[in-house]
Amino acid sequence: MIYPQNFEQKTGFDKVRRLISDKCLSPLGQERVAEMDFSADYTTITERLEQTDEFVRILHGEQEFPAAFFFDVRYSLKRIRPEGTWLDEKELFDLKRSLQTINDIVRFFRPVEDEEILYPALTALAGDILVFPQLIGKIDSILDKFGKVKDNASPTLAQIRKEISSTMSGISRSLQSILRSAQSDGVVDKDVTPTMRDGRLMIPVAPAFKRKIKGIVHDESASGKTVFIEPEVVVEANNRVRELEGDERREIMKILTEFTNIVRPMVPDILQSYEFMADIDFIRAKALFAEQVKGIKPIVENKQQVDWARAVHPLLYLSLQKQNKQVIPLDITLSEEKRLLIISGPNAGGKSVCLKTVGLLQYMMQCGLLIPLHESSRTGIFSSIFIDIGDEQSIENDLSTYSSHLTNMKYFVRNCDNKTIILIDEFGSGTEPQIGGAIAEALLDRFNRNRSFGVITTHYQNLKHFAEDTEGIVNGAMLYDRHLMQPLFKLSIGNPGSSFAVEIARKIGLPEDVIADASAKVGSDYIDMDKYLQDIVRDKRYWESKRQNIRQREKKLEEITARYEKDLEEVNKQRKEIMREAKAEAQRILAEANARIENTVREIKEAQAEKEQTKLARKALEEFKASVNSTGEEDDKIARKMAKLQERKERKKQKQNAPAKPIFNRDVIEVGDNVRLKGQTSAGTVMELQGKQAVVAFGMIKSTVKLEQLEKVSKGQIKKEIQKSTFVSVGTADHMHEKKLNFKQEIDVRGMRGDEALQAVTYFIDDAIQVGASRVRILHGTGTGILRQLIRDYLHSVPGVSHYQDEHVQLGGAGITVVELD
After folding, report:
1. What is the chain's percent helix, strand, coil content, to nearest 5?
2. CA–CA separation, 151 vs 154, rounded Å?
3. C-beta separation of 328 from 489 below 8 A
């Protein structure tokens, strides 16, 4: 039930209807737009919304929808019901093209075998629609691509047109001959050609020479400077053409009548198919309008509710769009606990727009139109929508503004129930404020007891107090910027709003003494209450802004968390793949190493070495094999063992390829040997042998010494003696040895301040260089990246550091720096 009768004009739905009608391709769809009505049936509403939503998806799809020829031929089809009537060429051509369009649409929706149904609601609509491919084929055999009857539509027509063509050719030749003769005599200008007048070929001639050409003068130009003569030679031929043209018309009429007789029994089925075309045209227009106003299919629940986020008045949106302005969306909630919303606030603050937005969008949705709001919004269904907006003053009916308002209220009270939504603008206004406010409060109480839903705007303080103290009613305020003195057009639910009467009066320029007198008359309590309301609104805006910022940050955090979880999952996947590959590589290397060990064992056996040594070698090999196969080892340990295994292979290869070392013989001294004087520690090198003497270089000094005074020493012995003779004490050497044993190749500085971490890293790098470490790791974490940068700046300045980089992503990535030392 909709009240009053001019509901659509009051809410602006009549303009929506016109906008949709303009998007229709034919009167078929425009009639559907005119018939579009309000429904309270859940199934009907959801079906209409689903059809429109599917067509929006078609508009965005890659496959082009067949919407080329939407012709309304229903009048022509109804006209041919009596026997003896026929469809003319244009009607037949329109029928053929529109039937082809219906055929293409039905084929567009009907899926082939095993193909997914993309648009179920529209497919169901097209399910039992008849198409007429044979009829289309028959029309194609009669009409050409321009909609004219073909020559071969019948043998008789072909013969007639052939004779017409032949006769016309003869007339043309005769006229050309007469024209050339007249041109040579100077009777007719050189550029003159035969002209068709009333279906007959004639020669245009100046009036002064009209008697020079024998024939009939049929016409003259409007200026009188040209007459049109039909030469007597072609009069008979032109008469024959006229006769043949009459025969042609009669034959065409006969062909069309015969075809119409075929069509006549099919008219009811064809008209039913045109009803389907009307539905498609209507749904398409609704989808185009939804695209224009950014409408979506909301969540519709079969209960009474309004839970809208970012709802937009479509007409206001289109108007502001032309001015390159943004519309401010509306967030509004009406639930079973808070059914009636009392909106207060300054004039021109957006209260009426809020009211009309609720009424228009709810009505549009229940008419099957997509509405502009956020996709998270939830809508309900109301059986009745009552609205009281504007001045209904009537001189004829002797109604004042307030009387009209009370007439509406009488209807509301009598007919409202728990499935009704009531929309009232300026509730209680139009009469003496005190009694007007009291009547409004009594009516509001009745609406609440009937458990009706509604949005009501007012300036009355008693209604604000009543809403605050009554269950089922909630206050709302249109926000106002007190500093800029301008409305914000935002609805805030929970607290009443101030009318800002004093501030607006001051902004307009009302004298300050007048404002002061008015404030004194209403009393300080009223002024203070108004200020308190303003402060509440201001504070609420502040906390709402804070809450919005927190929501945005939480949303961003959720997005980052989701991204990190996805990345972590990908890293784990990669880790498993790398582990699998590493194990496979380890198995391959192990097999190769095993083969080499077996060869070594065989060689040992052949050399008759001790069996115990062979057992030890096999045991070491098995231990290594078990360590490689262990699944519990960390990835970095696997990498290091793989590297060690590779180095071991290389050393074995070098040992195998190295030439056999000569056996050290202490008694034989040769050139190049290291020798020293017996009883001395200084060693020299034999440069030359001279019989029983040798030339020996001790540093930079060469001496000739008898061989019996020299003793041969090995290089290893020289190194040991040199180490013993250095200045490093035994205690220092032991300390360094202990430091090497206890040195850990990793330091964790996470959680330290910058200076603490830098100091710890400095000591760590110094120790690493002292003990001769080649590679160390620094765990600093990712964080903001400042600690990582400080450490890397320091590493860049250390001479002993050859290279540093991020650890492999599998082993820690940017949270760990790997340092290579000289």
Report:
1. 55, 15, 30
2. 7
3. yes
Average pLDDT of the segment spanning 126-148: 90
Peptide bond preceding 4 in cis form (omega within 30 of 0): yes
d(Cα 609, Cα 601) in Å, to the nearest integer?
A: 9
C-alpha to C-alpha distance for 443 and 427, rounded to whole angstroms: 10
Q: Are strands 215-220 and 227-231 parallel, antiparallel or unpaired?
A: antiparallel
Q: Within 10 A of 451 (CB to CB), how many other CB atoms are there?
A: 16
How distant, in Å, are the alpha carbons of 740, 761, 764, 772 from that of 795? 22, 9, 11, 17
Reported as a pLDDT band with limits 50, 70 and 90, residue 443 is: very high
The verdict on pTM exceeding 0.85 is: no
Helix, strand or coil, per DSSP, at residue 656: helix
The C-alpha angle 141, 144, 149, rounded to 5 degrees, equals 80
Q: Three-state secondary structure along 686-739? A: EEEEECCEEEEEECCEEEEEEHHHEEEECHHHHHHHHHHCCCCCHHHHHHHHHH
Residue-wise DSSP of 410-479: HHHHHH--TTEEEEESSTT-SS-HHHHHHHHHHHHHHHHHTT-EEEEE---HHHHHHHHHSTEEEEEEEE
230 bridge partner residues = 216
DSSP bridge pairs for 344 = 477
At 607, list the tokens. 């050399």
Comparing C-alpha atoms, which of 314, 286, 305 is closest to residue 372? 314
Pairwise CA distance, residues 539 & 779, whole Å: 47
Give 274's contacts (C-beta < 8 A, 6+ positions apart): 28, 72, 73, 74, 98, 102
Return the structure tokens found at 221.
């130009």
Q: Which of 414-428, 540-554, 595-609, 771-785 has the lowest mean pLDDT?
A: 595-609
Bridge partners (DSSP) listed for residue 702: 697
Spatial CA neighbour of 430 closest among 456, 398, 459, 463: 459
Residue 78 CB: number of other CB atoms within 10 A?
A: 10
CB 9 within 8 A of CB 55: no
CA distance 32 to 286: 11
Orientation angle between helical segments 267-293 and 42-60, nearest 10 degrees: 70
Contact 133, 101 (CB under 8 A): no
Q: How confident is the model at residue 105 (pLDDT cuts 50, 70, 90)?
A: very high
CB neighbours of residue 282 within 10 Å: 27
